[in-house]
# Entry
Amino acid sequence: MQFADPDSAAHPYDADLTAPQAIRVNVPSDAPPTRLLIACVLGQNGTLHRWHVLQADSSDFSAKILAALPDWKFTPAFRGNQAVEVNAILGFDVDTK
# Structure
């Protein structure tokens, strides 16, 4: 997961963001490994919303992951002690080297 606070471009902050952590991310067991990139918003409550596919090599895999996203849960991103909403990109079968 990559994430960014969209407000930070217009407002400098003293504290860095603390990364969100996955609590529940159930990938369907019959989902084949294939490249998929999803843009979304991770809310202050740790849930994902306003997602859309940026890139997909398989519409079947995309459909299965998109159907599972409402059940996913993360710790929110934090700036200091304050949970903040962030833009996020989720990547599947992506080489980050």
In short: The two ends are 14 Å apart (CA to CA). The first helix runs from residue 59 to 68.
